[in-house]
Amino acid sequence: MTTAHHRPHIAPSPGRRVELLLDEGSFVELEEFLGQRPSDDPAGVRPTGSDVVSGYGTVDGRPVAAFATCVPGFGTPLRDTHRRKIVTALDFALKTGCPVIGIHDCGDRRVQDPTGAIGSYGGSYGGSYGEVFRRQAQASGVIPQISLVLGACVGSAAHSPALGDFTVMVDQTSHMLTTATDVIEAVTGEGTGIEELGGARTHNTVSGNAHHLADDAGEAIEYVKTLLSYLPSNNHEQPPAAPDEADLDPCDGEPLLDTVVPETAHQPYDMHEVVEAVLDDGELLETQALFAPNIITGFGSVEGHPAGIVANQPLHLAGCLDIDATEKAARFIRTCDAFNLPVLTFVDVPGFLPGIDQEYRGIGRHCAQLIYAYAEATVPLVTVITRQAHGGTYDVMGSRQLGADLSFAWPTARIGTTGARDAAERGWVDGVIRPSRTRHHIVRGLRALRSKRGTQPPKKHGNIPL
Predict the structure, then answer these.
(1) How many distinct structural domains can be found in the chain?
(2) Which residues in 381-404 are b (16+ Cβ under 10 Å) and which e?
(3) Dihedral class, residue 223 (left if φ above 0, else alpha if ψ from -120 to 50, else beta)
(4) Residue 454, in any domain of the structure
(5) For residue 265, what are the contacts with CB-CB under 8 A and spacing of at least 6?
(6) pLDDT tops 90 at residue 264
């Protein structure tokens, strides 16, 4: 019978994993001795509290809270001591206003095992994960929550990373699945393997549950550190900046933008070239790079100030919007809005992806999510239309009418059947700009918008069309 997870090596202790993530010597453990008493495990005496470590420290000098779950070879369920330690880390992060990083590895036990795993997901241990989930929901949009999956997360353990803002997984090592492979086979007759069902590559390419696929734990940790460098500690702070006033004359790479769009309307080009020409040092940290590649999301800086990037990618599906792309972009925009990052949108979209399957799966509702994300955002929004924005996709992709503070068009742009100059005369865009001067206009626009004060009508919360 196929098991839910196979561990070919002994994993590092949770304490060691936290130390590898944080600055050397900065980790301070919370509730260090909680659960440090002999276990009733017949396999031997083992302190159950050591399976989870929580505390605080620094990453590149910035305060963070962290917890790590790691069960090297025992497959222990989430006991009350484990729950308390995770909740302690989340509470500490909320009280101090710092990001929280969870390192997840919940061991080998199969989800259907009645001796422990089902109990840990709401049975004999009283629904311990429920309290963790509630704390994560309370922290959502208040502090950044990042998950490092360095082993198996089965059953309810898979929900915790999904509740956070970003999930990083390691190829051939990380697994997340709600139901074990042998349960699926027994109930439905569908045979599948652990990698195919819940491996890191699957979640980075098919399900969209992960945001980065790392080759090893070291690369995963470095990605998390870089990600943190673009995010503020909490929703009341601005993202960390290293102000560096830009030279507004075109730099070496920008003149290439005057010829990046092919003369043939249906010929693709790489939108990365456009995005990277606008950002400081051409550096873009992509999120979900392998999922819905017809749209690009990620972080970069302009004059040393972090910003979020959303861009159609003509190299994939001609840049059409489909269900996966709209969900990917909508969640990213809402994350940027929650943590005070301006959003730069680069538009080249021929329309929505046509198809019966897309309609049956509710593409209209999913596009409404993207509309909602742009419309509710109060951070600076700057949009550049490089080639085409046809039909409803013009409205959806950060249009001026949807709330963009500044909207520019290249001379090659067409909004529906309307050329760039006519679109400007009708007030659909603020101006027609030379492609090589795109960074110039974005820099000046973001400078002016740093003092933007946006508000929304008072309400308990909106009802986003999920």
Answers:
(1) 2
(2) bbbbbbbbbeeebbebbbbbebbb
(3) alpha
(4) no
(5) 387, 388
(6) no
Predicted pLDDT of residue 71: 58
- The confidence score (pLDDT) of residue 78 equals 62
- 403 pLDDT band (50/70/90 cuts)? very high
d(CA 22, CA 27): 7
Percent of the chain having pLDDT more than 70?
Answer: 87
Query: What's the pLDDT tens digit per position in 88-146?
Result: 999 999 999 999 999 999 765 444 443 333 333 333 344 678 999 999 999 999 999 99
377/372 Cα distance (integer angstroms): 8
Distance CA 101, CA 302 (A): 26
Using DSSP, state whether 215 is helix, strand or coil: coil
Which region, left, alpha or beta, applies to residue 214 given φ > 0 means left and ψ of -120 to 50 means alpha?
beta
Q: Are residues 262 and 347 in the same domain?
A: yes
Residue that terminates a domain, selected from 193, 228, 263:
228
Q: From residue 122, how far is each of 51, 61, 393 by CA, in Å? A: 19, 38, 44
* Environment class of 428 (CB within 10 Å of its CB; exposed 0-12, middle 13-18, buried 19+): buried
**Could you tell me the pLDDT band of residue 38, with boundaries at 50, 70 and 90?**
low
Query: Domain range for residue 99?
Result: 14-228
The whole-model pTM stands at 0.91
Measured distance CA(194)–CA(192) in Å, rounded: 7
Tokens of 25: 């010597």
Q: Which two tokens stand for residue 251?
A: 């730099």
